[in-house]
Amino acid sequence: MLSDLRQLSRVARVSAGWVPGLDIKPIMAELTSRMSEELDYHLEATHQQTFAKAFRGDPDYAIPDVVFATDEVLVSEWLPGVPLARIIAEGDQPTRDAAAQLYLEFLMAGPQKAGQLHADPHPGNFRITPDGRLGILDFGAVNRLPGGLPPVMGRLLTHALAGDADRLVEGLRAEGFIKPTITVEPESVLTYLRMFLEPMEFGHFRFDRAWLRSVALRMNDVRRPDWTVGIKLNLPPEYLLIHRVWLGGIGVLCQIGGEVSPREAFVRYLPEFDVTRLPPPR
User: Fold this and answer.
1) CA atoms within 13 Å, Cβ hemisphere of 11
2) pLDDT tens, 130-145?
3) How far apart are CA 132 and CA 82, in angstroms?
4) Model confidence over 44-82: pLDDT tens digits?
5) Rounded to whole angstroms, how far apart are CA atoms 125 and 79?
6) Of residues 216, 208, 239, 220, the one with CA closest to residue 143
């Protein structure tokens, strides 16, 4: 697996010129390092125990304790429940709504309560327990965030939703999302990013496949004036796993098809997200 990833790194460096805003070398180095960690069962056991301790007795989430770990095997307590994949396939709407809200909030609650981000949002890692909690498995991919999610994320999200294009671009540059050599129009950046943040404009929003398809079509429509913004943006390596969770989590939410309250979740778990600066939800 790691040899394949190193080969991919070589290909990525050659093709990086096609995306002028992206600094590919540090991203691939971070990805290789993270993939190495996913193969370390002792480290995974440590991550799992950190989560289990932080969420012990939580009314909404269930995380099994580690029973035994070696270099080749990891044994956890048994966690009963209905796999999220089954809810995706056959769940009724109230079950989907409840599962989607729990799922969304856990991805943000982990950094705040455990100082770690569960970075593998695949539905196979989640289940609804008999008492209605969200059970979580597989802690091989974890982003250590001892201070919680970066407060700058809350500020940037606030700027975007408040329509403050200049402060948004200023913040993106400061964090390395826009390289110094790249020229962008602030309003174009705002327009491009707002299509991903549309759910945050509502008090309640139903993620579904139709909405995800509409975003994909808009993002890849070369006729749109803001189409080139996508190739001008960079991904700082320290945000790699956060980005993975953000995109993967949205995909899973669209599979679940549940109605959630995204602003409520962000107010609870994202530092410096200032809802008072935003227009009232639609």
Assistant:
1) 6
2) 999 999 999 988 999 9
3) 10
4) 999 999 999 999 999 999 999 999 988 888 999 999 999
5) 11
6) 239
